Amino acid sequence: MHDKNTISQQIKDYALSIGFDACGICQVEEIEVIESNHYQEWIDKGYQADMDYMARNVEKRCDPTLLVDNAKSIISLALNYFPHERQPETAPQFAYYAYGKDYHDVMKAKLQLLFEYIKTLISNVNGRVFCDTAPVLERYWAAKAGLGFIGKNTLLIIPKRGSYFFLGEIIINTALSYDTPLNLSCGKCTRCLSACPTNAIEKPHLLNANKCISYQTIENKGEIDKTIVPLLNNRMYGCDICQQICPWNRYARPHSTPEFTPSQEFLSMDYEKIASMAVEDYQRIFKGSAVKRAKYSGLMRNFRALQNTSEE
Q1: Catalytic one among 50, 132, 225, 281?
Q2: What percent of the chain has pLDDT over 90?
């Protein structure tokens, strides 16, 4: 068996060879008290809105050994989704992450492929792959693994690359060679706080989901908050404002994952086409897409809200 340094480098090299854009490794440990307190405060304020799953399994979020027995290492992966071609600015806007196929499926397949490779390097290794589907503090561990730092908009920012990245993890019961967290921050920049039309980022690193356009147009199962509707502009599914305004994203470059490339039918959608979109059209255009999370009814609810905004 090779030494920890060699195996860790082999894991990183293979991760890049199968399409991941960044890979870092950190040691499993209970999260820092300041982070634990921050998360609990966020829950206590009700800032998770009706995303009740965020308030469950807090102990697992704070201790990865409750997810994987005898866990020792967290391998953090990042996958770029910044688009090659974007919707016309006059069209109802979808967040970039939803342009192509559902990232859960794409990420999980790559994570599983990497885990199978790790099994060839380490005998009797035990572990699990995670991609936004379990109580894992993904951005926290990615920062611990040296991928980037958490910005004031609460997103992970990768230096010289930006924040348009999906995150995933493999937690294993084997010690590896660990990376060092970056000593970087947003400095004095507060552009994301100033640019958010709903003031959802109430202060640096504190986002109130109740006010967030992404929450209101995706996770919210009821009607969009009446105070938010006039502020939607033409954002129909999700919102990228706090990323689009971020200086670090001037370094963003188009992804290299074919599954994230949108169809021309998607890119050609305008107000008229969406107004006449039937359930069958929705199912065809968004087959295998993360947009399916909002369902046809949710998407048309959002569209009606946009129409109300344009009529005012």
Answers
A1: 132
A2: 89
